[in-house]
Design goal:
Blueprint: E1 23-33, E2 46-54, E3 59-65, E4 81-86, E5 92-99, E6 111-119, H1 120-126, E7 128-134, E8 140-152, E9 159-167, E10 180-187, E11 194-199, E12 214-217, H2 218-222, E13 230-236, E14 244-251, H3 253-258, E15 264-267, H4 271-276, E16 285-294, H5 299-304, E17 308-316, H6 340-352, E18 360-366, E19 368-370, E20 375-377, E21 380-381, E22 390-392, H7 393-405, E23 409-410, H8 417-433, E24 438-446, H9 453-463, E25 468-474, E26 506-510, H10 519-526, H11 530-541
Parallel strand pairs: 17-18, 17-24, 24-25, 25-26
Antiparallel strand pairs: 1-4, 1-8, 2-3, 2-5, 5-6, 7-8, 9-12, 9-16, 10-11, 10-13, 13-14, 15-16, 18-21, 18-22, 19-20, 19-23
């Protein structure tokens, strides 16, 4: 659901996307229902080909295809499709289903069963999406549907904190007991292939050791595969490196985690002793006394877990933009070329809208005299409906913006703090829910230096404690130097009374840096830091995703 935001914001320095850009991978698992039957005497043998659209070269490129499933009109494919996911871009993706009649890669002689086109963002935010298949002429492919189940394949940064103890271990030392320690291995490609991932400290001269908690990353332990076989060996330490095997046992990360609330016991088996001694029982017992998951949640964890991104636009209608009826005005509406305000709204909004379930965006203006009383306002709905300032999608925002220009008088000054404060009210409501279910983005478009810089600094510092970020796009040729202080890249922003921002929530870019470039470049730049800001906020508050889509 979208919320009504009002607030102010101020520009900061221009940035180049790079280090903080969200680049991860998602895996898409596919299934189809009620496919058309193209084979005589049997059923179709479907496979799915997946393509991504290259905006630069204006063409579709194949990124993967599933296996073929024979004689099945309701296939569930085993092979997933992995694609790179960029939050900052609108990534068009197309799924094409074919009835494969031969073993050649060329599909021109195979029957086409239908296709579905959408964006990667829609799939990520929808988690499991089912859509009808259509033919190339746009007509329905009968009752055929395709379901796409999307899951993050990004690196797993979770850590397991494992506490082990053992009892009645074999005595290995002549002059003492044993000096036991544990080694952890994960299975490789083959059953005989094992890779060491961790070793505990040595406990001297005991058959009943209690080891310190061992912190092992999930990535190291099992590469994120919770069912990967693990081997834990118990050794008796020898200073010459010739450590004696006391015994071993096998488990998985899933077993460790799911049984973390109750103590687990494994018998420790020495394979050589077991092979030689008929009456051999074991070489001791090993217990997991505690397993704690230290979890690092990613941006996609929050999105896939149900967090909604709420998008609001704030537009500068001050007189410095120029008379909208003049071609030199920054608000001039041309039949051929959209102005910079429109371009910024579209390029950023098209990315954000995939993460807002109802696609209803509040659009606000500031710095104009508005009807019916021709009063100056620094926080008004551009559709002039104060109780319902929502616009339907990005096209609705653009339409309301253009209609608004004909009804207002550009004025001033350039005060944005009221709009920031307005959005902050709704972000505060989300904060009080104590859930990671809402995050707010305010896109502020302005043509000049802010008049209320003190108030804006104070508003941003307060907002840094809330689930919100502020994106500022500087329109026109003004000197935006003073805006740099609002962006925390060069040090923490402080309010006039000296309070430091809890985190950096402002991203500023001048639109002129992207003039003539691909519109997607602007979105990529201004949204590059947003995933990190979302992660940092919820981590700061200790909030996990509403629904955990991974173990």
């Amino acid at each position: 659901m979208a919320f009504i935001p009002q607030g102010n914001s101020t520009p900061g320095p221009s940035k180049i996307p790079g280090a903080n850009r969200l680049l991860t991978k998602v895996e898409m698992r596919l299934s189809c229902k009620s496919l058309m039957d193209k084979d005589l005497g049997s059923k179709s043998d479907p496979l799915v080909v997946v393509e991504l659209y290259d905006h630069m070269y204006k063409k579709w490129n194949e990124v993967g295809r599933t296996e073929r499933i024979k004689n099945n009109l309701n296939p569930t494919f085993t092979e997933g499709i992995i694609v790179e996911y960029h939050f900052e871009e609108v990534q068009k993706i197309k799924f094409m289903v074919y009835d494969l009649d031969n073993d050649t890669k060329d599909l021109r002689d195979d029957d086409f069963l239908g296709q579905m086109e959408c964006t990667v963002g829609q799939l990520v935010s929808g988690k499991k999406v089912t859509k009808p298949l259509v033919l190339k002429n746009g007509k329905a492919a009968k009752k055929g549907t395709i379901t796409v189940d999307t899951e993050e394949v990004a690196e797993n940064h979770d850590v397991l904190v494992l506490s082990f103890r053992a009892t009645k271990l074999d005595k290995k030392d002549v002059m003492g007991k044993s000096d036991p320690f544990l080694e952890f291995y994960k299975q490789g490609v083959t059953e005989e292939d094992w890779h060491k991932v961790h070793q505990t400290e040595v406990i001297k001269n005991t058959l009943n050791p209690v080891w310190k908690p061992a912190e092992i990353s999930v990535r190291s332990l099992c590469n994120g595969d919770y069912d990967k076989k693990l081997k834990i060996q118990v050794f008796d330490y020898d200073f010459d490196g010739g450590h004696d095997v006391i015994g071993e046992f096998y488990t998985t990360a899933r077993e460790l985690i799911f049984n973390s609330k109750s103590q687990i016991e494994w018998v420790c088996i020495n394979p050589k002793k077991k092979a030689k001694k008929k009456n051999y029982k074991n070489s001791g017992q090993v217990f997991l006394t505690k397993c704690e998951v230290k979890r690092h949640y990613t941006f996609l964890d929050y999105i896939l877990g149900g967090c909604q991104i709420n998008f609001t636009v704030g537009i500068d209608f001050t007189g410095s933009n120029g008379d909208p009826i003049e071609p030199t005005s920054l608000h001039f509406i041309s039949d051929s070329t959209p102005n910079e305000y429109t371009q910024a709204i579209v390029s950023v909004g098209e990315v954000i809208q995939d993460y807002d379930s109802d696609k209803l965006f509040p659009a606000l203006g500031f710095g104009a005299k508005i009807p019916p009383n021709n009063e100056i306002s620094h926080e008004f709905a551009i559709n002039f409906n104060a109780t319902n300032p929502f616009c339907s999608g990005v096209t609705g925002v653009v339409a309301a913006y253009q209609a608004c220009l004909r009804q207002i008088t550009l004025w001033g000054p350039t005060n944005v703090a009221p709009i920031i404060d307005h959005v902050a009210k709704f972000a505060t409501e989300a904060l009080n829910q104590n859930k990671a279910s809402q995050y707010f983005i305010l896109l502020l478009l302005t043509d000049g230096v802010l008049t209320d810089m003190y108030e804006t600094r104070d508003a941003i510092v307060k907002a840094s404690h809330l689930p919100m970020s502020v994106i500022i796009v500087g329109v026109g040729q003004a000197d935006f130097t003073d805006m740099r202080m609002l962006d925390g890249d060069d040090g923490k922003l402080r309010s006039p009374n000296g309070e430091a921002a809890a985190r950096d929530i402002v991203q500023f870019v001048p639109f002129r840096d992207f003039k003539g470039a691909n519109p997607a470049d602007l979105a990529r730049c201004v949204l590059a830091e947003l995933p990190q800001q979302v992660e940092e906020y919820f981590k700061m508050k200790g909030l996990h995703p509403p629904v955990l889509h991974r173990l």
